[in-house]
Amino acid sequence: MASFLQVDGLSKSFGDLVLFNEISFGIAEGERIGLIAKNGSGKTTLLNILVGKESYDSGSVVFRRDLRIAYLEQDPIYPENLTVLQACFHSGNEVTDLIAEYEKAMNSSDHSNLDVILQKMDILQAWDYEHRAKQILAQLKITDFEQKISELSGGQLKRVALANVLITEPDLIILDEPTNHLDLNMVEWLEEYLQRSRLSLLMVTHDRYFLDRVCNEIIEIDQKQLYQYKGNYSYYLEKRDERISAQNSEIDRANNLMRKELEWMRRQPQARGTKAKSRIDAFYDLEKKAQQVRDAGNVQLQMKGSYIGNKIFEAQHVYKAFGDIKIVEDFNYVFARYEKLGIVGNNGTGKSTFIKMLMGEVAPDKGSFDIGETVKFGYYSQDGLKFDDQMKVIDVIQNIAEVIDLGNGSRLTASQFLQHFLFPPEKQHNFVYKLSGGEKRRLYLCTVLITNPNFLVLDEPTNDLDIVTLNILEEYLQQFKGCVIVVSHDRYFMDKVVDHLMAFQGNAKIKDFPGNYTEYREWKEIQEVLEKEKELAAKPKEERPQNTSPKTEEKKKLSFKDKREFEELDVLIPQLEEEKAKLENELSSGTLSNDELLSKSNRISELIEQIEEKTMRWMELSELM
Q: How far apart are CA 231 and CA 214, in angstroms?
């Protein structure tokens, strides 16, 4: 495979903070690499170095000559006066530059180089550029191509930038959190698009299903060093665990040797001189190794839970709409004690509005939310907390609580609490503006949990959090002795945390589903198949697909056995169709348990196969009648 990029001995630091030290890796044609590291370890900095937006201390970054590269930044910026479609021509890539050159030549009296330009236009398929741009924008739910960039939300702007990266079909794309601000359908579309394409890529994402299905290599920055794993995310987890276990064993052996060496060092007379200098030097090397404590980055969240009563909240005949867009209509719901509810749906279906109504930030048009007296909310908003950038990290927490009660007589100071969230003492005295985007999100999570809530409402909590923090947050939520509502596009996170879903389907249509996201997705696919079956059954008989198998010139006479089979099929096929219709009604009732739902869904699949097989046989026999 051709080498696209080679990085050798790359180091980067900001003052005393070393992000990575002498790391080396390469990207070859066809490789799809996921970059994993804790927040603040330099993921975005590394991507910016690769595309020339940031300098580095030492090492080398070498791209193949004439390599076409596209970069999706975490926070893209475009001139505000551009329209959406104009922004797609603003990126300054090879195709847009060629289109600009073509337009300049056409508006000029000098057409001497037009033949060369036209030939290049054919090679790069530049004639189809606008059509491809509109297709990809539509997949990303951007349909107003004349809308001004200044009118777009941050999420819409990120999607325009993503479309811009994909349109030109470069040799290598570099993506920084591509799934942020995409709804579940868009994430799955992008997943399939990248799987089908021949693009090579390097990306940073916290979406673990996305990593598992798209990437064929993982690189990890850990303790300022880089580790490579030739496989997807599942393979990485397995091999990383083996690496950590081996490192811990090595540290244990070093500690045992340290005890022996320490005894020897203490016995040395001060005037021994250089006679045992090599052994003394070896001691200090061993001491260094023994002091390496594997910091797995565990965010310890074992907080004391506040008492919560039986009454949580009741939604009573709630209506909400924005003009013609309906969010909820005559919505009623009784939230149960210790319930863990996930909310999913496309962007614009009202998920965040629903949460804001519950929290009292948005008033319903009609109806009410009746909230229990013992409920104490902890609200993690999608918009985030607006920190004072000139405050120190420790001051942000101390302004909420100096000491945190863990229960059983245990207490933590604000500083100790922050250490559990991967903010070591030296970082606690940094100003907020020095934190990375993910570290700010982690600090915001601290401010929510430190208040000791018994009902957590988390609106897109996974955006910008690293995978280590996500794992610990998932574990905490699984053990949390209270209620949880989570709005998230992170399928992996939802599968691990929630016990049922509320799917916002648009136009005030809401489906309450007893299961996690993967189970909901499987159920949804079955429903789509059933809908097609219903549509086919509703068509007039002459419009249905006809059996096109050639008839034999001479009809074969039916045997007695064939006649009996034909008569049995005449009775059996309607019975199977009746059973299928009954199961379809039960599946749509919303009253089935998770196990019943899966069992009946499997039975429907069996029935469809049997009906098709029996119908085909009935048609074969009918030809001979």
A: 10
